[in-house]
Design goal:
By secondary structure, the chain is an alpha/beta fold. The chain contains 16 helices and 13 strands. The chain is 40% helix and 12% strand. The chain has a seven-stranded mixed β-sheet with strand order 1-7-6-5-4-2-3, with helices on both faces. It has a four-stranded antiparallel β-sheet with strand order 10-11-13-12. The chain starts with 18 loop residues before the first helix and ends in a 9-residue tail after the last helix. The structure holds pyridoxal-5'-phosphate.
């Protein structure tokens, strides 16, 4: 809760507050967050646990925070750093001088989602003659492709992945290509399960059809090449593969840069050209944007630049080795527990497990792990795939691995003892019968209250909006798991809408 005296109208205090007070407020609010450091958080945050790296990135961010990426001629520092980041990413991913892809170019974006939206935009706008463009993606592709399709009014053709291999059949992807298809996409690896798609076959099929092929390496593009150098059997997925026309890699994931930096690479400048937006038909400056945002802070770019310069190739190789060992240790811990099984053998930096027949309720298990200080990510059942628990493993986890096994055993025992969450009969009936369109605001508030989500009522002016989530999320997850995807989407939009309410502050 924010001190009343400091708050006049939300964040806008009457006379302003001292700098140390403002900072103390931020710190107090941050204290309620999941721990970003310490190796016990398996999603959202990528922490290499390298001493001094946070300070370096923060200092570099500060240097360039007010620099504007809107105009590279006004701020050549930013252009130079972006070009250096693109060059590094291009080299890591099989492009550049002396390779089979010497003409790779790219852009720095704000994140994986923006990179994917732009890959779809470039593919769409390369074909103005196609009035109803389509893209083909495996069902394991990141949801950002669906967002891109939605934003850009491109139809999405989803090809299911095998429930055994969690990969798409390249022949099925090839068969889904139509005359209106402008892009075929695949993942290296998929976020949910960490498996690498058969990129070579998919890219060949796309090339045969004369269609672009994007490899979404947002998650793994900075680790797979290093894992290969460490001797792991990583299949070819980069620009060395004929037919791959673009690749995305997020520097704010395994390049361990602070948030806000991804790179979208194209095999050559002609492929990138339709990504740009230019507009001169107004009285102001001619707008020429390679990415979605126009005004962009130089902070994240400078922070990423400093991070890469400091860690270097040897640093990333070392961090990949540490992470690989942590993955192996966590996977062993899962294998050792009766009632759990790996959904996929780890081949990147994800450990994903599910319950066996008669095993513990996974959503209760996730809560039990949270109670023991381990923050994992539950994944709902989907299209024949069981519910699962996702662990994104970063280098910071390594020193914690030995503690995970005993806690997992303990948490499984507790989840078994507690038994599965049972939805109250009226909630189960509601979810079974409800269509997304039938969800009224009253129904949402009632549901949210029943689940212990926020208070759903008007802001009381007492601190930032967003009521606390229940300590245990198993009931919420069980309800969502029982709902079909369209209802899950609608329910979550409504629940998040309830949390996002203005904090008006007091009228003192
Ligand atoms: C494979 C993959 N693609 C795209 C994204 C989207 O990235 P962002 O959250 O940076 O927009 C993610 C995020 O986890 C990802 O794992």
């Amino acid at each position: 809760m924010i001190d009343e005296n400091t708050v006049g109208a939300g964040a806008l205090s009457r006379d302003g507050v001292a700098a140390d007070v403002a900072l103390a407020e931020v710190r107090r609010l941050r204290a309620g967050d999941r721990p970003t450091h310490g190796g016990r958080l398996f999603a959202y945050v990528y922490d290499p646990a390298v001493p001094g790296l946070d300070d370096l990135a923060a200092a570099a961010h500060r240097e360039s925070a007010h620099v504007n990426g809107l105009d590279p001629t006004a701020f050549p520092s930013l252009l130079a750093m972006e070009n250096a980041l693109v060059g590094a990413a291009g080299r890591v991913l099989g492009g550049g001088p002396g390779t089979t892809a010497p003409d790779v170019v790219g852009s720095v974006t704000s994140g994986g989602t923006e990179s994917l939206i732009l890959a779809v935009k470039a593919a769409r706008d390369a074909h103005p003659e196609i009035s109803a463009p389509r893209i083909v993606v495996p069902s394991s592709a990141h949801a950002a492709f669906a967002k891109a399709a939605h934003y850009l009014r491109v139809a999405l053709d989803v090809v299911p992945v095998s429930v055994e291999t969690l990969r798409p059949d390249p022949a099925a992807l090839a068969a889904a290509i139509r005359p209106e298809t402008v892009l075929v996409a695949c993942s290296a690896p998929s976020y949910a399960h960490g498996v690498v798609d058969p990129v070579a076959e998919i890219a060949a099929a796309a090339a045969d059809a004369g269609v672009r092929c994007h490899v979404d390496a947002c998650f793994g593009g900075w680790t797979l090449p290093y894992l290969r150098r460490l001797g792991e059997p990583v299949p070819a997925f980069d620009f060395s593969v004929p037919g791959v026309t673009s690749i995305s890699v997020d520097l704010h994931k395994y390049a361990y840069a602070p948030k806000g930096v991804s790179v979208l690479l194209h095999r050559d400048a002609a492929l990138r050209a339709p990504q740009y937006f230019a507009y001169a038909d107004w009285p102001g400056y001619t707008m020429i944007n390679p990415v979605i945002a126009s005004t962009r802070s130089g902070g994240p770019i400078a922070a990423a630049y400093a991070t890469l310069r400091h860690l270097g190739d040897a640093g990333y190789l070392r961090l990949a080795a540490v992470t690989r060992d942590a993955v192996a240790g966590l996977a062993d811990a899962v294998r050792a527990v009766d009632g759990l099984r790996l959904l996929a053998e780890p081949e990147s930096t994800v450990v994903c497990f599910t319950a066996t027949e008669g095993g513990p309720d996974l959503f209760v298990l996730v809560d039990e792990l949270t109670a023991r200080g381990w923050h994992t990510q539950p994944q709902l059942s989907y299209a024949g795939l069981p519910a699962s628990v996702h662990l994104t493993v970063t280098a910071s986890v390594a020193p914690r691995v030995a503690e995970f096994g005993p806690d997992l055993t303990d948490a499984v025992a507790a989840a078994r003892a507690a038994g599965p969450v049972r939805l109250p009969a009226e909630l189960a009936a509601l979810v079974g019968a409800l269509s997304p369109e039938a969800l009224t605001p009253d129904l949402v508030v009632g549901l949210a209250a029943g689940l212990g989500l926020g208070d759903g009522g008007p802001d009381d002016g007492d601190g930032p909006a967003g009521g606390p989530l229940p300590e245990r999320m198993a009931l919420v997850n069980t309800l969502l798991d029982a709902a079909p995807p369209a209802l899950r989407e609608r329910l979550l939009v409504e629940f998040v809408g309830l949390l996002q309410r203005p904090a008006w502050g007091s009228d003192d």
